[in-house]
Design brief:
With 273 residues, the chain is mainly alpha-helical. It starts with a helix and ends with a helix. It is built from 11 helices and no strands. It is 75% helix and 0% strand. It has one domain. α2 packs across α3.
Length: 273
């Protein structure tokens, strides 16, 4: 697909918006990749958008995984064990997603966006619960301890991977609680470890779509480039706005809901429902 010079600029801006959101809030931004490429940039083929955004999300996740790994926030055994069945699920989900027509698929995606927005603003557990402390007051993540349940890990990985592949999203909002539930990881370890699955699921989905010729490689590079710049800016502001993060989550959730409603109206109207 050949983009105009204006569309190229819009792709970079879109990547910047997603990267900025991820850097500022630590998650959720990837959900905007698909509507931005569809309605802001103007790429008409929803399946090309899904395959392209999946690869961009995967690259972003792997980049962020490195910093979490260096900080000691990645538990590799649960991360890999969750990702392996998830790859099978992601391939199955992406294969199924390619068979679904654009409008119904985008309508389902819009509903998923609303679910994610609600999850973002629901009451969080206290920090004490998320970061258990030892006798000396040090975070328990200094010496990670977790209870590994193979059945939960395999089942959870497959289900989350299938959803990720079907919609072409990273799925971090499902992977983090999945790792907490199946492997007993502390929240910070679950967040760091989830990035391996986010990247792997996204890469699997992208490969599936690429084999069908549904990935625009130029758009991927432009989107990632914008995402790196936006991520750096978001990360710089994150510390300054940390006290307002709850408010920022609410604002971002409202934006997601508004975009989702717009997508539902557009696509359901086309379906004459």
């Amino acid at each position: 697909m050949i983009l105009t010079s204006t569309q190229t600029i819009l792709v970079i801006i879109s990547g910047g918006i997603v990267g900025f959101t991820l850097g500022l809030l630590g998650g959720g931004g990837s959900i905007l990749a698909i509507p931005l490429l569809l309605y802001f940039v103007g790429i008409r083929d929803a399946h090309v958008v899904i395959g392209t955004s999946a690869l961009a999300v995967a690259a972003n996740a792997y980049i962020n995984l490195i910093s979490h790994w260096r900080a000691g926030h990645v538990a590799w055994k649960p991360a890999v064990a969750f990702a392996i069945p998830g790859v099978v699920g992601a391939f199955a989900g992406s294969s199924l997603g390619k068979l679904v027509p654009d409008k119904p698929l985008l309508s389902l995606f819009a509903i998923l966006m609303i679910v994610i927005a609600v999850l973002m603003i629901r009451p969080k557990k206290s920090k004490a619960a998320s970061h258990p402390q030892g006798q000396q007051g040090e975070l328990a993540t200094a010496v990670p301890r977790y209870e590994f349940h193979w059945a939960r890990v395999i089942t959870g990985g497959f289900i989350v991977g299938m959803l990720s592949g079907f919609f072409g999203i990273g799925g971090g909002f499902l992977i983090v609680p999945g790792l907490v539930f199946s492997a007993g990881l502390p929240m910070i370890m679950a967040i760091g470890s989830s990035l391996f699955s986010v990247g792997t699921f996204g890469l699997t989905t992208a490969v599936s779509y690429a084999l069908s010729g549904l990935v625009d490689w130029v758009v991927v590079l432009e989107f990632i480039g914008g995402g790196i710049i936006g991520g750096l800016i978001g990360a710089l502001l994150a510390g300054k706005l940390s006290k307002q993060q709850r408010t920022l989550n609410y604002i971002f959730a409202i934006i997601i809901i508004v975009v989702a409603i717009y997508m539902l109206v557009i696509n359901l109207r086309t379906l004459h429902l």
